[in-house]
Design brief:
The protein is mainly α and 150 residues long. The protein folds into two domains: 3-90, Hypothetical Protein Yqey, Chain: A, domain1; 98-149, Arc Repressor Mutant, subunit A. Helices cover 73% and strands 0% of the residues. The chain is built from seven helices and no strands. The protein has helices at residues 3-16, 20-37, 48-71, 75-89, 98-112, 120-130, 137-149. Helix 3 (48-71) runs antiparallel to helix 4. It is globular, with a radius of gyration of 18 Å. The protein starts with a helix and ends with a helix.
Length: 150
């Protein structure tokens, strides 16, 4: 079952069970997928990789908004954004812990042959491909800096 079909099925069940918060997040995901499908030059639909990137982008947008709401003491809006993050994360692969990301990055650094901070670009290129959907880009970047300067 494709992500789009899964989202459609989940929208139906959320409507029947009257879960308004879930419904809002699911409709946002469906909207993003439909926009990607109708993009100029797109003829064969959206690949799994592209769907994963859409979901990651949606989570990042909501987390950024939630952070702003928290800074402005808008707990009501913060709670809404975080509820949507939880719904969207159900469709992403399990996120790795910081220790697991570190272990993966050490393997990647050894493969690439990185010796210092000047090799960060090489490591980041390989790491973002290897850990796509499994770890946040900001976390990867921070850990790569730590490992290369240590």
């Amino acid at each position: 079952m494709s992500l789009k079909q899964q989202i459609d099925a989940d929208i139906k069940s959320a409507m029947l069970e009257k879960r308004k918060d879930d419904l809002k997040a699911l409709r946002a995901i469906k909207s993003m997928i439909l926009l990607a499908e109708t993009e100029k030059g797109n003829t064969e639909g959206v690949s799994e990789d592209a769907e994963m990137k859409l979901l990651i982008k949606a989570v990042k947008q909501r987390r950024d908004s939630a952070q702003i709401y928290k800074e402005q003491n808008r707990e009501d809006l913060y709670a809404i954004e975080m509820a949507e993050v939880e719904v969207i994360e159900k469709y992403l692969p399990k996120q790795l812990s910081e220790e697991e990301v570190k272990a993966e990055l050490q393997k990647i650094i050894a493969q690439v042959g990185a010796t210092g901070p000047q090799d960060m670009g090489k490591v980041m290129g390989a790491a973002t491909k290897a850990l796509a959907g499994k770890a946040d880009g900001k976390t990867i970047s921070t850990l790569v800096k730590q490992l290369l300067t240590a």
